Amino acid sequence: MEISSLINLLPKAEVHTHLEVSLPISRVYEIAKRNDVTLPLSYEDCIYKSTHYEGLCDFLSILRVACSALKFEQDFYELALSYFKISYENNIVYTEPQYQSCNFTKYGVSEETILNGLWRAIQEAETNYGMQINLLYGIGRGASVESSINSLYFAKQHSEKFKGIAFAGNEFLHPAKYYKEIFDLSSNLGLAGPNDEFLAVHTGEEAPPEIMIETLHNFKIGRIDHGIRALEDPFLVKMLSTHQIPMGMCPISNKALKALDQFPERNYIYNDFLDHGCLISINTDGPAWCGGELSDNYLDFANHNMHLNAAELSQKVVKISENSFKCSFLSESDKTRYINSVRRIADNLTTLD
């Protein structure tokens, strides 16, 4: 069987994606026109910039363009449903999308408007696509402590709609240690699970290992999002492997945002993490703006492992599918159920071959 067919047939989880960048750029501009919003970039300039990132800051600046277009509940419904449709087409059976309300509230949109639209899309996708969806409430580096506190209290009021907390943004400008009050509050409010096991923190995408170590030292973390620069510190990699700390990595996004330029002598750093026994999953970061859908990321992974024979390559792809569930915030019984489904399908395909 062709490896692309195996990738398409395997059930997958996605645990690291941002709903803000789930709409195609063309649709963003259509919604902006519908809402009588003049965006700060022309459509052509936005297309160009989205394919010529120089780093995370470029991506975040374009993200602000997308967020400023959305004003009404219907917009957020369409935003989320766009992602769920892409997910369904990529055989994603479980997903943990995150969003940061501060990206929209600064343009005058209410928290309720955002959540109502997203929640309507979640319910529709679970019904029509048979997906399981757990929404993560995002806190952004760069948001004021006061606004972040207000956001957490809003999340607490609607805690039945959120599985956990995600923390993202520019680490150089806003190190995690400056947000201890926010971490403590999310813990005290029970938003990140009984033992903070449902807290996902972006770290080590651009910032060096010492910042990752500082973050891990100060906070309980259920999953690291990105974490690629850990590879520069063998002791950190060993710790991540020994403790099987889940890591949600985004290969095509890392390439698009030039994060992989830090490893010019390595062919494919994600194999290094696997070889060291780290628990990594492969994700999109955002399928519409980050360079590829989930199946594209899996195929990219396979293309970097073509030195293996067919059976070895299939086993490695199946392992990545299994890891996607292991890195999730699902219960252990649900993880086992999904992983058994992956193995059953993989075994059946092997028998057919």
From TrEMBL:
GO cellular component: cytosol
Required cofactor(s): Zn(2+)
GO annotation (BP), single: adenine catabolic process
Name of a matching Pfam family: A_deaminase
One function term, GO molecular function aspect: metal ion binding
Protein origin, superkingdom: Eukaryota
Domain (Adenosine deaminase) ranges: 11-343
Protein name: Adenosine deaminase domain-containing protein
Source organism (scientific name): Blepharisma stoltei
